[in-house]
Every structure is written in structure tokens, then in C-alpha cells.
Amino acid sequence: MPSRNWGLLRGRPKTTSIFRSEVMSLIQLYIPSDVARFTVSQLGEMGLVQFRDLNSEVSAFQRSFVNDVRRFDEIERKLRYLHKQIEANGVDVYEFLDEEFVGGSRGPRDLDDMEERINSQESRVLKLTAAYKNLQLKHLELLENKYVLEEVSSLFTEISGRQGAPAGIQGAGRGAGRGQDAAPLLARADTSSRRSIGSLDAARAGDLEADIGMSAMGRDINVGFIAGVISRDRIATLERVLWRSLRGNMFLNYVDIEEPISDPNLEEPVYKSAFIVFAHGESLRARATKITESLGATLYQVDSSAERRQEDLIDTMSRLDDLQHILMNNNVARFNELTSVSEQLNTWFAVVRKEKAIYHTLNLFNYDANRNCLIAEGWCATNDIPAIQSALHLATEDAGSNVPTVLQELRTTKEPPTFIRTNKFTDGFQNIVDAYGVPKAGEVNPGLFTCITFPFLFALMFGDLGHGFLMTLCAALLCVYEKRLAWLAKDESLRMFFTGRYIILLMGIFSMFTGLLYNDIFSRAMGFFASGWAWPTDQGGEGVTVEATKLDHVYPIGIDPAWHHAGNS
Question: Is the pLDDT of residue 188 over 50?
């Protein structure tokens, strides 16, 4: 098939019309290096040029401005981190956008100041967050230690005074128990609030008491204990593993902690249990320690003396109160810091994304080392060349340079891209056409016809005066208050309704028209005028077919309401 001569399209009148694509020109720019960023920024704000990639054979990592792209990638990563912290701490993000800074000319010093401020804010938030996490870990440790001390003290208090202490009971591992504290525990009866398993010399609970009785007569059994906290769903596994590994030469007692404990390493609070394990001999206690730690348990030092345990408990609770105040102050400091960040976050995001787009575009250009300039090629509408030249002049002034950018129009036989100029009314209909296919340059664009045919075909299926009125009312409100409701375009679920408000408006108007023709309002017939048919009143009944009588007049508009009840309608 012979190639089309796209150069012949240049003889077509250069008028703007929705019927066809704009007449396009291939332009070449010679941009001085010190003006390049300002030039692309100005052209990007106008959105009138589609640049061609002149470095298609060069990888993305070997292009001239790859370091600048990485720089703004890193700044964007820091902004995402700050935004994540803002959401996690419940800070409201201000919708404020500094239009002068975002849409104006930004010099290198402005960008350096912005980067320095972002780095400073991120550094402070990182330090506060790290300190908060460390404080949380310390708080978790003190809280678990408090529960262990309370439960162990409660166990020893409960059984104190039952029997005399056998000689030789001694502690080992992470905690130690003297005879007068440890021996009665092994001989106590089970209670409903705590659960225990195991024995030192026999599997049966009754043997414990007999063994302790023998020890009371002078036998040294060298019993010690370890205590700690473990996740509640692993306590059953701990029981079984300890029983089998120690071959029954152990005594485990544990109690569930009623309140969930917040672990900074986990997203949700965890229910845990405090436990104490008695074992005979150093080797068994060492083995029990390894088993509990392998299952994720945290062991804590528990003194054998009741007085020392009470002192440790009081000290732990005092430190918990102090730590709670420190955590509160840290939260206030982080909240204030993130609030100051949220005021500029949207502005910073917009600027960083624009700068990234600028340097991505600059990577499409060729660099001429001899002339110290960048060479760019791109397509634009022929009618827009004067506006582009004005933008190039402004960019040269913003950069403070005396060397202007040179623009020349190239003659080419390449197929130009399609550019159909739209407005807020025709944009939605053009998107519908583009979804099925984009017309080539010189072809007729069906977008204008779609403005009528699409809503009318919808109305043929949705003909109802009442429902059409509701659609028209809602769409009219979106059109009248479109500036106030522009925030709807930012919401993913509501964006389609806002951008298609004019389509919905026409669909509602045509639905009202066809609903009037169908004589249908909220799926009910309308009797505005006298019907052209009369139903007999002295006939009928269940299962009887009656015929309407034709009168001498016709229903003025639309379908006669009598047909809504007819069997042959």
C-alpha cells in the first residue's frame, strides 16, 4: 500500500475544528543548556508540544539527566515516608497548594531550599519515630516484667504458710527460689485461675506432695525456676515440648494476661500469658530456657526474696509511669512536627513530580557538546507556534540568559499525531470516541456527532420523564457548581461522574424527551390529556377479554396511556 503524503495536509486551512485533527508541524529546538530546564517547564505548563525521543537507543541509566531524576526520586521517597507517618498518626493533610510556587518559575536555589527543608523535616521525624519505637519496646519490657512479678508474687503468696520449706531448694536460670518459697508451690493444689502441668519425679500430681515430703526430711532436690511471658496461642505448644524434652521432670504453671499487650513490632495487640517453670538441675533449666526462647517467649529476672520482688514491682510501676509521660511528650512533638509538614506536603509533591517530568523530558533530547546546547524535536499544532515562541522568550528571561532558544519548523513526510482540541463540554464525548479508536490525521472525527447520538441512544433505552428529571437535576448541579465541586475529580470513585457531568446532563434531557413520548413517569402512565380509547364498564371479569372503543380524537402527544393496560401493546 503506498504511503500517504502527509505534507499535502499542510495546504489545508489552519482553523481549529472538532471535525478533524489540527494541522501539525514538526519543530526543532536548539536550547542553551542553562535555559533548558526553564524552557521545558514553560512548555510543560502550556502542554502544546509532544516531544520525540531522540535517544531511543540509549538506556535510561546512560542518559544525561539520570542523576537529576534520581535526586527527585529520593525526595519523593522521603515525601511518601512523611505522608505515611502523617496517615499513621491521624494528622489531617491540608489541601493548600501554593500556586505561585507550583505554577511559577522555580530557580535552582528554590529547589535547593525545598530539598533542605524536606531533609530536615524527615530527619527530625525519623529521630522522633526511632525514639518512640525504642520507648515502646522499653514500655513493653517493663509492662511484661510487671505482669510476671505480679503473677509470680501471687503464686508464692497464695501458697505461703502451707508447709515448712524443705532444705536445699535453690534457684537457677533467669530466677531463683529459696526453699521457703519454692517448695510449697510444688505441693499446692490447683486453682481455677491458674493451670499447671508436670512433676519432678512422677507424672501424677499426687507424687509431687510425696516427693516434697521426702525432701522435707532432709533430701536436697536442687529445684530452680524460670519465669517469663509468651504469646497465648503458643502456651499449649510450650507445655508439650517441655514435657517431652524434659521427660516429665518439670512443673509448669501459667496464667493468661487479661489485657492485650501492644507490641511495636506487630500491627495488632497480642494476648499473652505469664508462666513459671520449675525444673531439677542446671542442665534441665538451661534446656527449658532454650525451648522457651525458641518459641518466642521473653524471660525476666525474678528474685527469690519476697521483699525484693515487692521492691522490684514498685520500681517497675514507677518507671512505667515515667515512661508513659515521656511517650506522651514524644507523641505531642511528633504530632506538631507532622502538622507543619502536612501544610506544605501537597505543594512539595506537586513540585517534585513536575521536576521529575521536566528531567524525564530533558532525557529525550540530544546534547551537542560543541554548541553547549540541547537539540529537541517535537510535534505541535501549527496554530500554536506563536504561543510556543512566546513561552521560549519567557523561559529565557526567567533563566536570566541572553542566548535565546531557536525554533525552526521542519519539512517531513512522517505521519503526524492526532490532536483534536476539546473543551470541558466535548472532552467527555471525545474520550468515548477515543476508547474505540483515535482517528488519524485528516480523517473526520465523529466526536461532534457523538455529542447527540450517544445521549439519544441512551434515552431510547431509558425513556422516563421522572428518572430523566432526576438525572438532569443532579448533572445540572455538577455543572453549575463545578468550581466548588472540583474536589470530586480527586476521588477515584466520583471522578467519572464529575468529568462526565455534561454527558449525564444531555442523557437526562433526552431521557425526559423520550419519557414524554413514551408517556412514562417513574414507570407509571401519565394522563395529562383525555385518552383516545374508552374501556367498556359493563363487561369484564377474571379471564374475560374486552376491547376498547376508538374515540373521535387522538391523544395529543406521545403514546396513549390506554396502551399501557392493553394486552396487545
Answer: no
